[in-house]
Amino acid sequence: MKLKRRWEARLSRQRGLLLCLGCVASCTLGCTAYPTLKSVPLDCTADSAYQFLVIDNLETVGPAQWFTSGDMTSAAPVAEVDAIPGGRCNSTAALVLRSSHHNDWGSLFGFNNFGPRDASAYEGLSFWSRAPTGTTPSFSLLLDDPNTSNPIAAVCDVDGGAPTSTPDSDPTQVCKNYCVPDAGVGAPSMTVYDPATGMAISGSTTAAPPPDSCGNGYAATQVVASDWRFYTIPFARFQQGYMPNRVPNPVLKVTGAVPDTGLRTAALMNFIIRLPKEAEAELWIDNLAFYRKKAAAADTDGGLDAR
């Protein structure tokens, strides 16, 4: 009897081992460590529920009206408008942002002469986008307003000096561009300025800025699929970092009307796409615009639902 029980236990263990081996073999052939995104058929009507204030429809193949900047660890990033292989709905071309091996702070792409723009009648940013398989699908979108960017004041001399001033009576309450001292070991450096553009690099602050300092732009993060899809980014998603120059504060008191964000959508100054460090990017973007939902059609059937 004992011998029989031992044989039954041994057979049970063998069956369990065979089942485990079958699972491993099955997953080796058809499983991955991460869930696979299913291919979604292209829906050309995905944007039909919206009205747009077009920023750029990106239909002219050639150099793009975007400036580019990257750290010194790799070749300069590239922005250009390329033909879409096979087209996309009624579009034949799109913006392509390419960046590779920027391993310090990364790279960025900015829209030339973007602001000021009044988008206060709209809900946010929209665009079609894709990132081919094997490329970096995530990026940050950054917007500036007069609380974070002062186009009137000259860019500070990196050798130091007094901060630019804005009269207290100025109703626009624009921020100040503080100069960055670089003389001597341990000199406080608040912000890194890109030498090619003269713009403050978001996220480069190494010391607490004054409450009225420019910088600390509004950022939202987005991840896109490998196939073309339509994306909407509500203005409420654009948020500042928790630093002394986050608005509202005792100096910069004026904010916009969008709930949950201080962004002043009536005076948007800059638009930048920022890629993370070590990105391998080939990011396609088309029909960049501000969006808002279309008004519901008036009910004219005279039924009860017309009340």
Describe the structure concisely for a colleague.
The protein is mainly beta and 307 residues long.
List keywords for this structure.
28% strand, seven-stranded antiparallel beta sheet, disordered C terminus, globular, 307 residues, Jelly Rolls, mainly beta, single chain, five-stranded antiparallel beta sheet, 12 strands
Task: Describe the 3D structure.
- By secondary structure, the chain is mainly β.
- The protein is built from 1 helix and 12 strands, in the order αββββββββββββ.
- The chain has one helix at 2-30, and strands spanning 50-56, 62-63, 66-70, 78-88, 91-100, 107-111, 124-130, 138-144, 218-223, 229-234, 270-275, 280-293.
- Strands 1, 2, 4, 5, 7, 10 and 12 form a 7-stranded antiparallel beta sheet that branches.
Mean pLDDT: 78
* Straight-line N-to-C gap: 83 Å
Computed CA radius of gyration, to the nearest angstrom = 26 Å
* CATH overall fold name: Jelly Rolls
- Whole-number tally of structural domains: 1
**What is the H level of CATH, i.e. the homologous superfamily?**
Galactose-binding lectin
Total count of strands: 12
Largest sheet: number of strands, sense, barrel closure: 7 strands, antiparallel
Identify the quaternary structure here.
single chain
> What is the H/E order?
HEEEEEEEEEEEE
| Strand content range | 25-35%
Category from helices, strands and their pairing: mainly beta
Q: Low-confidence parts, pLDDT < 50 over ≥5 residues?
A: 17-36, 157-169, 181-190, 299-307
Number of helices: 1
CATH class: Mainly Beta
